[in-house]
Amino acid sequence: MVAKKPEDALLDVVRSHLGYTESGSGWTKFGAWWAKRHGKPEDWALAPWCDMFISWAADQVGLSAVVGDSAWTVGHAQWFKARDRWGRVPRKGSIVFFDWAGSKNILAIDHVGIVEAVRSNGTVVTIEGNTANQVKRRERSMSVIAGFGYPAYSSGKPAPKPEVSWTEEIVKTLPTLKRGSRGYDVKTLFYLLHARGMGLNGGVDDTVFGAPLDEALRRFQTEAGLKVDGECGPKTWPRLLRVD
Q: What distance in Å separates the CA atoms of residue 239 and residue 243, rounded to the nearest whole number?
């Protein structure tokens, strides 16, 4: 009997959850798994779960080392790029990252899924979590795809960790943000503060640096022992991006 390829085993897991729907409160078993696995507060079970779904599925088939273990789409994409496993060519089993604005900028990534098939017409068939609050099969245009992460399925081992930290590299590209700032960099800040449990919830425009974001950032700076100035710059970004 021919052993199943790792990417096919992973796709079998995600296919088996097609139609899974989050609860009315936004709870999913993937968020609950992530919270327990990483020692996060219970409200992580209510967090955006597209990347947690991919991480959960990889864990089910023992592929976390090559697929990644992430809840943050931007950081997950950077993880692949730092290991020279990032590109723009779709492949079956690759992890697909979306930027709905079409900028192809990793910092603007909004969503993630896995490639099930590549069509001859240039579209990509994907399976995604947290799309219309469900696990669904989609057919996507390359125009909304920022890039692909290529797990090292063939070796079954993670690519060597680079000597240069991706955190240091990404911080060089990030602007200083303060109240009144707008755009996808603000969205990145919003998500990071939410992930750190700084009290940001739904109903807030995550692309505008307003009062809720200012308060959350100052709370984080206080707890991190940083200068409390309400600005996210070269001292604050690294602390937010650090993996504890």
A: 9
Confidence class for position 168, pLDDT limits 50, 70, 90: low
Q: What is the dihedral sign for C-alpha 132, 135, 139, 141?
A: positive
Question: β-strands 86-87, 95-98: how paired?
Answer: unpaired
Residue 242: per-residue pLDDT = 67
How far apart CA 205 and CA 18 sit, in angstroms, is: 30
| Residue 58 DSSP SS3 | helix
Euclidean distance between CA atoms 45 and 105, whole angstroms: 28
More confident residue, 155 or 105: 105
214 within 8 A of 139, measured Cβ to Cβ: no
Question: Edge-to-edge, what's the strand order for the sheet holding 134-140?
Answer: 86-87, 145-149, 95-98, 111-118, 124-131, 134-140
99 touches 71 (CB < 8 A): no
DSSP three-state, residue 73: helix
Pull the structure tokens for residue 116.
């099930």
Cα–Cα distance measured from residue 62 to residue 51, given in angstroms and rounded to the nearest whole number:
16
Q: Using CA atoms, how far apart are residues 244 and 67, in angstroms rounded to an integer?
A: 19
φ, ψ at 116 (rounded to 5°): -95, -35
* Two structure tokens written together for 61: 């088939």
Give the model's pLDDT for residue 240: 83
CA distance 43 to 89: 36
